Amino acid sequence: MIRRSDEPIYWGLFGFGGMVIAFALPALLVLMLLKGFGVNCFDIQSVAATWWGAGALFVIVSASLWHGFHRIYHGLHDLCIHTTRLHHYVLYGAAGTLTVVALCLYAATFFGLLK
Which domains does the chain have, with CATH numbers? Predict the structure, then answer.
């Protein structure tokens, strides 16, 4: 009997998160730096007030979370730490929990509960 692995799901989320970080995060950082220098081209509150802006921020945050926690999980091998199921549950559970928190914040923004 071949045991099925859930690793392809996590590698897919890792790849998606890496792509989001590579494309969206530098653009957001440049816009935030311009805002810090007084160029009024970006207002995070007005972006988050729209459904598409809040959705884009949710995707950026959640994909970055999955990417980061997957990198930590597999980075433990570089530190000569043998990963167990406990590491698996703690790290991916944290990524899932924080994604649900981000989804709740998105829903609260979408329904106007956060002002």
Answer: 9-110 (1.20.1300.10)
